[in-house]
């Protein structure tokens, strides 16, 4: 039996990419991301500067036993998109989400541009875990009060149809936590990191995982991809001056040798275009998917 694991924690591998400093508070455009040379794909992590990914949400769900750090993205000022498996137990009223943060060691209350809000409720897809363990791995957090939209806090876009975006082949993931492995141990990062990863076609991915191509996306390569540390984090692409999220981190192999070779053992992402109606209904009609032109 193959071992697989939800990527509670996520973020693993990145490449040595050009610095994004000086790009605070603006959307990444198509020509900001180039296909990286294969030789630049390394473990280690490339830091993202504050404001480069203003739609990214750091999610901290506190439960009776421990806490669940995850990633997310901002749908509306009061709604955060994340993975359903991030909340496997009832959470406490200490649960929070943070935006505008580029280093988790910083005090959010003392860091300019950073906002923190309390989570009051969560809606998980009613078919989460059906027919397979991580099917429909999607959830929406509702906040006690809305975020103020600023240069460091912005909404994400989700396409009604992602078929043209997927032809771009390279996508980006961002998040905290894992940036390398030390033996069998995970080494975490305090900094927000980002990575370029290639999408993997359905036929190849299906040889490894029994996925549904309507509801899931595969991505990763040998030496780069998703790992323990930030489930629920965004998989996105730039188009037309906007960032379009096509997936969110769901699960991958739990074996170290496989998680570092995602060309043959891809990570799986919930495909968001399939869930556009669900997103609209569970934000009281406030969020609508758009046309990625």
TrEMBL record:
<keyword id="KW-0645">Protease</keyword>
<dbReference type="GO" id="GO:0004252">
    <property type="term" value="F:serine-type endopeptidase activity"/>
</dbReference>
<keyword id="KW-0732">Signal</keyword>
<keyword id="KW-1015">Disulfide bond</keyword>
<dbReference type="GO" id="GO:0006508">
    <property type="term" value="P:proteolysis"/>
</dbReference>
<dbReference type="InterPro" id="IPR001254">
    <property type="entry name" value="Trypsin_dom"/>
</dbReference>
<dbReference type="InterPro" id="IPR018114">
    <property type="entry name" value="TRYPSIN_HIS"/>
</dbReference>
<keyword id="KW-0720">Serine protease</keyword>
<dbReference type="InterPro" id="IPR033116">
    <property type="entry name" value="TRYPSIN_SER"/>
</dbReference>
<dbReference type="InterPro" id="IPR009003">
    <property type="entry name" value="Peptidase_S1_PA"/>
</dbReference>
<feature type="domain" description="Peptidase S1">
    <location>
        <begin position="42"/>
        <end position="284"/>
    </location>
</feature>
<dbReference type="InterPro" id="IPR001314">
    <property type="entry name" value="Peptidase_S1A"/>
</dbReference>
<keyword id="KW-0378">Hydrolase</keyword>
<feature type="signal peptide">
    <location>
        <begin position="1"/>
        <end position="16"/>
    </location>
</feature>
<protein>
    <recommendedName>
        <fullName>Peptidase S1 domain-containing protein</fullName>
    </recommendedName>
</protein>
<dbReference type="InterPro" id="IPR051487">
    <property type="entry name" value="Ser/Thr_Proteases_Immune/Dev"/>
</dbReference>
<dbReference type="InterPro" id="IPR043504">
    <property type="entry name" value="Peptidase_S1_PA_chymotrypsin"/>
</dbReference>
<comment type="similarity">
    <text>Belongs to the peptidase S1 family. CLIP subfamily.</text>
</comment>
<dbReference type="Pfam" id="PF00089">
    <property type="entry name" value="Trypsin"/>
</dbReference>
